[in-house]
Design goal:
149 residues, alpha/beta, D-tyrosyl-trna(Tyr) Deacylase, Chain: A, six-stranded mixed β-sheet, two-stranded antiparallel sheet, 8 strands
């Protein structure tokens, strides 16, 4: 399971001109799911992201987590994070899980993340053509792969 975590001043997800999710200060989390991801990947990655100290404290040092500052998050499934680009110029997505595997894992990730944050998180719509608008704060962008712990 791969994640791109972006610290944002705001983020929105829109599908067909309808607002699906909106947050102010918090995290936009893009999740790529592979066929060999398990509950262990979900538990490890959701905990890592919720406790990642990438928000500033009173001394402007990145020392606080999403939980510490009680901020919000949006989690969006993004199969393109698993693109293979070694050969040719057209990415291959053979390493991404199909919907039958990815949807339950995505939903389970959201449930675990919400338990850790003790609040609902925003989402996208799995498989939809989404428009994501965000203001990256910092910028702070972190990539984490649960298979590379």
């Amino acid at each position: 399971m791969k994640a791109v975590i972006q610290r944002v001043a705001y983020a929105t997800v829109t599908v067909e001109f309808s607002l699906i999710s909106k947050i102010d200060k918090g995290l936009l989390v893009l999740i790529g799911i592979s066929p060999d991801d398990t509950l262990a990947d979900i538990l490890w990655l959701s905990n890592k992201i919720a406790n990642l100290r990438i928000f500033n404290d009173d001394q402007a040092i990145m020392n606080k987590s999403l939980i510490d500052i009680d901020a919000n998050a949006i989690v969006v499934s993004q199969f393109t994070l698993l693109a293979k680009t070694k050969k040719g110029n057209r990415p291959s997505y053979i390493g991404a899980a199909g919907p039958d595997i990815a949807i339950p894992l995505y939903e389970q990730f959201i449930q675990e993340f919400e338990k850790l944050l003790q609040k609902k998180v925003g989402t996208g719509i799995f498989g939809a053509d989404m428009q994501i608008d965000l203001q990256n704060d910092g910028p702070v962008t972190i990539i984490i792969d649960s298979h590379n712990r």
